[in-house]
Amino acid sequence: ALSFSAMEMAERHRRSSNGREAKAPALALYRAMTSFASPFLHLYLCWRRVRGLEHPVKWQERLGHASLPRPPGETMAAIPVIRHCILMRPSLNILFTTSTVSSYILLQRVLPHAVLCQFVPIDTPYAVENFLSYWRPEAGIFMESELWPNLLLASSRKGMTLALLNARMSIRSFERWMVHIAKPLAAEMLSRFSLIAPLSTKEAVHFQILGASPNVIHYAGNLKYALEAIDDVDAMIIQLKTELSGHCVWIAASTHTGEEDVIASVHKDLRKSFPNVVTIISPRHPERGHQITTKLRQQGFVVAQRSCGDHVASGTDIYVLDSIGELRMLYHISPIAFVGGSLFSGLAGHNLAEAASAGCAVLTGPYIGHFSEMVLELQRLSPVSIQQVSGKDELLSVLQELFGDAERLKIRREAARWASGILANGVITRVWALLDLFVMRVAFGK
Questions:
Q1: Would you state the torsion angle of the CA atoms of residues 47, 52, 56, 59, taken in this order, to the nearest 10 degrees?
Q2: What global pTM score does this model have?
């Protein structure tokens, strides 16, 4: 998940927070624990850096230290909102924060030029104070499920106007926050938001039960549907499209450990009826690409690997897309997409809107967490826009059906594109209207 904070270029007097600081035991305990853990977290970050899990140069941003000059004065659902903010309020300076190296690399390519990007600080009093004291933001816009007590409450104390967009909370998180000692802390955090835009009515109810005021909860739609056009297509992707012509192609996207074994088994069975089938596997964590490729080759498959610059030849079985930021491009050259992270219990699915928007016939597994809301939204508009499969056997059956019936495949693809387009219509405009009313005018004036 991603958060960004907006800062007005003109210098303004700092506002003191009128909010009352909670006396909740959970808050005191949380602060004490995170303060005590600070030196150990520092060592943990060093260990992660050595393993390549933190940025080799910018890792200290996680401790709140800036590596960018301050101007005077998340993953991807936030990008269209940022562009609209810049369009409507050109004087804004925007700082975008992320927590993962892969997201940071992608953001360097897709963020507007004027937007600053750095890693979010870990949620300790020391790191948060470093971060906020340096950047001095006047408004903070958090995405999805970013409820970090030190960061949120310190931001509020410093007078920031706060919003939570695409707000969601898993059942597991909701149950944890409902525990007696934790609920006052949840209520304290949620009381600091001037705007909460939930993903669904169910999410809105959860936030109200935990203490959010009904007056700040406003539904605007799901920002994950608001996808920007792809302007810059890599030459290798264009070449891949040519290489795949004449093949039966499908993609298994955002796969997790163990799912590749299922996909490989499905491919093996598909090959009996469709000898020219090519399966694209795009692992959720691209760093697993080499491991996946090695294992598939040991099983006898002919595999091409994106990170090695391999090409699809006449006998290629599987293409491993182990790169960052190219999945959406592959959706546009694959007529069928299975969205992974959904085959095994304990997984919670991934974004389905990207595949639907690209005009894929969209499939996913039974374990999709809060993305079940997205499935229902799409199916309400068109029952054939997306389909959940129970496991390997049903996935194989549906793929055989779609590859064997061109007209059915065409109907499924058109339904997915149409339904996602309907759900995307007006989302950014509605979100901006709420941000302007509840955040921008409060923080920066008209």
A1: -60
A2: 0.83
